[in-house]
């Protein structure tokens, strides 16, 4: 297990760690600025596959957080990276929005409803019964079933919304085929993030707010895990799991001394 002082690269979740709704969490701006000024490799991770990295960078800017789009790694980007390795120049039928569609286009994929290599289901606010029916038929005909993330619900101002995992369950029930899930808690997403910044797991920390995605995936990927209590999981929930994060802190503000220490090490 790496000690915090040994960490040279960082991965961090976005919602619940850096922002809550559209408000920056205290300490987040200082932490990101510290990483940037010291040239510390880092990525902001999110299971959200609706938006492109550019969209998310703009959203963070409105919250007062400056994160270059190349420092954002979404489940859509991780999915496109994985599928490009599997079938370079392949084809896909996609249920999703700009995030996953753009990522797959940029990875050289062709979008088609005719004998695609993959059916890819991502996040969207307008799930179409017609599109779901098409996905079921294509999977039954042999297309491989991929989903960007397993989240069954997503937040909205009016309450929870059905999300990728819920729609995938419908498709699984109709086809008898389980999807391959790329996003958290699959450590695949973390490994692709490490590859993107040239990091080694033994020298990388993961900051997250969810035991069931961020922390378990970080542990399975061999990272130093830090749970912050500004999001989903609290101390009582931690006790429900058979695994533990390396550290539990109230918020990213508590990590600022460590970030300062890392900066001194890098610059010294």
UniProtKB/TrEMBL annotation:
GO molecular function: hydrolase activity
The UniProt record lists the keyword Metal-binding: no
InterPro entries attached to this UniProt entry: HAD-like_sf, HAD-SF_hydro_IIA, HAD_sf
Keywords for this protein: Hydrolase
The keyword Heme is assigned to this record: no
One Pfam family hit: Hydrolase_like
SUPFAM superfamilies for the chain: HAD-like
Domain of life the protein comes from: Bacteria
Family that this chain belongs to: Belongs to the HAD-like hydrolase superfamily.
NCBIfam families membership: HAD-SF-IIA
Name by which UniProt lists this protein: HAD-IIA family hydrolase
């Amino acid at each position: 297990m790496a000690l915090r002082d040994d960490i040279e690269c960082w991965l961090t979740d976005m919602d619940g760690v850096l922002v809550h709704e559209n408000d920056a969490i205290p300490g987040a701006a200082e932490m990101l600025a510290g990483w940037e000024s010291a040239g510390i490799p880092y990525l902001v991770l999110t299971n959200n596959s609706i938006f492109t990295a550019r969209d998310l960078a703009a959203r963070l800017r409105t919250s007062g957080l400056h994160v270059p789009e190349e420092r954002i790694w979404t489940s859509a980007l991780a999915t496109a990276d994985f599928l490009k390795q599997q079938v370079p120049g392949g084809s896909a039928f996609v249920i999703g929005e700009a995030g996953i569609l753009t990522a797959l286009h940029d990875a050289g994929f062709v979008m088609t409803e005719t004998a695609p290599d993959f059916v890819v289901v991502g996040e969207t606010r307008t799930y179409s019964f017609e599109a779901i029916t098409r996905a079921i038929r294509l999977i039954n005909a042999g297309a491989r079933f991929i989903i960007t993330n397993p989240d069954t619900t997503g937040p909205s101002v009016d309450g929870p919304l059905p999300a990728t995992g819920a729609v995938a369950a419908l498709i699984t029930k109709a086809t008898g085929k389980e999807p391959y899930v790329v996003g958290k808690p699959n450590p695949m997403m973390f490994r692709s993030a490490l590859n993107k910044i040239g990091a080694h797991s033994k020298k990388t920390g993961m900051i997250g707010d969810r035991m069931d995605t961020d922390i378990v995936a970080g542990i399975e990927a061999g990272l130093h895990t830090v749970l912050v209590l500004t999001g989903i999981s609290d101390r009582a929930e931690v006790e429900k799991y058979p695994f533990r994060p390396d550290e539990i802190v109230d918020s990213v503000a508590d990590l600022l001394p460590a970030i300062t220490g890392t900066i001194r090490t890098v610059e010294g």
